[in-house]
Amino acid sequence: MAPFIRDLRDVLVRPRALCGRSLTRPQPVHGVSAALLLGLAYATLYGWLAADGHQPSMTRGLPMAAESYYRAAALFALPLVLALTALVVLTVHILGNRSAKTIAPTRVAVHVFGLTYAAPLLVAYLIPDLVAYGIFGFDALGTLIRYSGMVAVIWVAVLTFGNIRAVYGVRPVRAALTTLAAALLQGIPAALLLR
Fold this sequence. Notes:
By secondary structure, the chain is mainly alpha-helical. It has one domain. Helix 1 crosses helix 2, helix 3 packs parallel to helix 5 and helix 4 runs antiparallel to helix 7. The chain is elongated, with a radius of gyration of 17 Å.
């Protein structure tokens, strides 16, 4: 199995194995690659929605005209997802290392938490959206997001919490607060710009 595919699988179903491997042989390119895949999935979905002439159903707080949102989002999704991933990685790494038993290198943080953020969103949210839109159309997305969005957010939070504990060896309260800080810092721009 290719190492990147193994890491994608392991972050979702065997996160301790990923963390252990990363502590001895970090592969930061795998964390960045996962973020790139997530950004490309967003860009693909938005490009498809724009090409079909759709507008977001939820336009409150949208920083641009609804008619042009998906077209613009197809262009900014990839850099935005990379920035959001970097924000999560940096937040976790800075706060995790502040009280860590062992200081983890940045390469480990990029490897583990790039995958931790991107993989569950890709698997639980973006791939189901792409499939549902292709099969059932635009109206299916509103119903699907109620479930897939919640599953993806919970999955990211649970993995982040556990991986903070595994990588930095911090207590559960510190891991929970760090997870919350990372979620809030990326969640605000994500909620505003990714519809």
